[in-house]
Amino acid sequence: MINFHPTDKQLRQFAEGNISSAMALVVAAHCDMCSHCQEKVDEVNVELAQDIENIAAHEMTDPAFEKMLAEITAKPMIDTRPAIVPKIELDGRFFDVPRPLRRYVRNTGNWSKLLGKVWQAPVDIGEAGAAHFIFMENGGQVPEHTHRGNELTLVVNGEFSDGLADYDTGDFLVMDNEHIHSPHSNNKDGCLVFSIVDEPLHFTSGLARLLNPFSHLFFK
Amino acid sequence: MLVGIALENNKSNTSKPKECANEMSQYLVAVASERCKRSYAKIFGYFAPRLRSYALKQMGNEALAMELVQDTMSNVWQKAHLFNVEKGSPSTWIFTIARNIRFDMLRKLQNRKEDICSDDLWPILCETTADQNEIPLDEQVTLEQVGQLFNHLPDKQRSVIEAIYIDGKSQQEVADQLSIPLGTVKSRTRLALQRLKDMLEDHD
């Protein structure tokens, strides 16, 4: 069951389009999995559309409009075809991803073993941030760390815990420098998450601290 | 060049929002199924000036505002068949298109090399993908059910569906027989099937 959602403010900013691309992508993917939040966004859309309807409209007599109308209606119709649904593959297992992430499956690099039973595959989203699919096998653990910037995470498939809470498929998490956590999965089938960070992680305990100088190489 | 398309200069809209939404929905359907320019001119006359005011407020620049209006209204014309009355009103659909275009415009203006675009975030202008695990519609329902719902289709859509699915004609043959463009046959077929599907879902 989904327990962690974007705030109402984040959902409103998403509906308005006044939101960073990275945040928009993770919120969109969450909404694709969470009908509760999708309904909230739909409500804001209706409200914002009413603002446009009620706006004091410009005069229609402007000749620019007439020209525009003629140009538009000279254009052909566009027929769109449903796209093939790509899946994320890891060791012969295939995972469905929420619709907003599907295009990025093609932009996903090879899986590499990060630490112990944790795997990651980089996802190219340009300058919007550093994105990865991360898979924790049963018993896999990411060392305890905090964040210099923001870490946005969506649980795509499975369950994991991080010492702060337990998360399930569809959960949406925002972590920053006030959160120290150590994600691990005890789920039989492991856990696949999608994550975007804007700054490298900062490891906080034990030997993993030695990783800090290099952490930009791992979780950049 | 403008023959046959009259702009609506009637600024005041006296009809109630609900009625207006129904009216605009019908125009959108006419654009989708018959490329009806007159219907489109009605939609344009109502929304383009409002969008311009909205866009001017958002972009703060007349040229950019008009670009936003043009891109939004082009999508309304070119992708009218993606409007689904079950999912919301025309104004909400058109607002979401404008919101998406503004999102992409702002990123382009700021020269950000981000590989995230509005179509990923708000997939309103994509055909919804059929779920691969979904049982095909024709296996879920009996012919009898379909036959009953079939009678609720508008005449134009019904005649196309009859010719294709009962008489077994090709879409081109239907177009020739009814003396209408092939594109019209295709869009009527699509709309009719969508409508049947919607009716079946309501039926359950």
Automatic annotation (TrEMBL), chain A:
CDD domains attached to this UniProt entry: cupin_ChrR (cd20301)
Could you tell me which residue ranges the ChrR-like cupin domain spans? 110-194
Q: Tell me the domain of life.
A: Bacteria
Q: Which residues form a coiled coil?
A: none
Q: Any idea what this protein is called?
A: ChrR family anti-sigma-E factor
UniProtKB/TrEMBL annotation, chain B:
Q: Which residues form the RNA polymerase sigma-70 region domain?
A: 46-110
Q: Where is the RNA polymerase sigma factor 70 region 4 type domain?
A: 144-196
GO MF annotations for this entry? Answer: DNA binding; sigma factor activity
Q: Which GO terms describe its biological process?
A: DNA-templated transcription initiation
Which InterPro entries is this protein grouped with? RNA_pol_sigma-70-like, RNA_pol_sigma-70_dom, RNA_pol_sigma70_r2, RNA_pol_sigma70_r4_t2, RNA_pol_sigma_r2, RNA_pol_sigma_r3/r4-like, WH-like_DNA-bd_sf
Q: Which UniProt keywords apply?
A: Sigma factor, Transcription, Transcription regulation
Q: Which SUPFAM superfamilies match?
A: Sigma2 domain of RNA polymerase sigma factors (SSF88946), Sigma3 and sigma4 domains of RNA polymerase sigma factors (SSF88659)
The record, for CDD domains, names: Sigma70_r4
Classification via NCBIfam families: PRK11924.1-3, sigma70-ECF
Q: Which family does it belong to?
A: Belongs to the sigma-70 factor family. ECF subfamily.
Q: What protein does this entry describe?
A: Sigma-70 family RNA polymerase sigma factor
State the organism named in the record: Opacimonas viscosa
